């Protein structure tokens, strides 16, 4: 009985996966994002302004290569630090 329940659960799981995969593949070509439904599409995309760069800098102070009383603009706590080459 236990083996039969395991096989049935596996079959149900496979059927659910196949249905989900088929639904996912069927919806790929559809554009259901709302917005401009049936309206004209914009012909020109706006350019990225110079005041808003397309990248960010993540500065993480207090790494193991720093020291609490070290000068942040001229660090000398660890002369073999990899961050000194950046």
Automatic annotation (TrEMBL):
The entry's keywords: Membrane, Transmembrane, Transmembrane helix
Q: Return the Polar residues bias intervals.
A: 75-86
What is the top-level taxon of the source organism? Bacteria
Transmembrane listed as a keyword: yes
- Region (Disordered) residue spans: 29-86
Name the Gene3D superfamilies on file: alpha/beta hydrolase (3.40.50.1820)
Membrane-crossing segments per the record: 6-25
Q: Which InterPro entries does the entry link to?
A: AB_hydrolase_fold
Q: Tell me if Iron-sulfur is a UniProt keyword of this record.
A: no
Instruction: State what protein this is by name.
Output: Carbohydrate esterase
